Structure formats: C-alpha cells, structure tokens
Amino acid sequence: MDRSVFHPERAQTRPRFEVGDLVEVYCDHENDQGERVRGWLEGVVVQADYKMVAVQFNRPVYLTNGWLIPDQVLWVQQHSEQIRPRRRRRRRRSTKK
To answer: I need a surface site. Which of 21, 24, 71, 80 has the fewest CB within 10 A?
Structure first.
C-alpha cells in the first residue's frame, strides 16, 4: 500500500500564495494592548512551495499550545482555511474645509 505524501498532480499546479504576497492568518497573537488573542493577523509570505507557506508577522505569534514563536514565522498549508489573501481595508477620506 503506497502512502506517499507527494502528489505529482498538485506539484504542477500553481501555488495559491507566493513569496511577497500579503495574507491574513487565523492564529494566536498579541493585540495592540499586549493581550493574547485569537484572530486574523496580517503578514507577508516569506517562503512558499506547492504544499506549505511561511508567513512572517510584525507581532508576537504563538502556537496553539502556548509556545511563543521566536522568529515570528508561522508555517501554514497552502490550501488551509486558516490563511486567506489580505482583505483591503477602506480608509475614509478626510474632508478638509
């Protein structure tokens, strides 16, 4: 019985995320007040292949078991529901009179 993890048909498809992409990852992190929360955090893809994506953040990030990730780089599967493209945030124009 072959239980190989490698799937050649997936290797030939284009990855969902590439290096330099801005993404949001659902993870444990610190908010502006220094409290640990779970939610969507914006980061940048620093490494990617057909299966995994490495995302680096500007805030402290934690594993689900509570360990702090020292280099603030979290690995996520390419097709996970825990990662999505960054959503554009609309800024209101200031009305100067």
So the answer is: 71
pLDDT in tens, 60-76: 999 988 899 999 999 99
32 is a domain residue: yes
User: For residue 28, what pLDDT is reported?
Assistant: 95
* 84, 78 contact by CB (below 8 A): no
Q: What is the largest CA-CA distance in the chain?
A: 74
For residue 30, the domain's CATH number is: 2.30.30
Give the whole-angstrom CA distance, residue 86 versus residue 15. 16
- CA separation for the pair 93, 27 (Å, rounded): 31
Q: What is the pTM of this model?
A: 0.74
Cα angle for residues 88, 10, 53 (degrees, 5° grid) = 45
User: Residue 64's domain spans which residues?
Assistant: 14-85
Structure-block tokens of residue 55? 């995302």
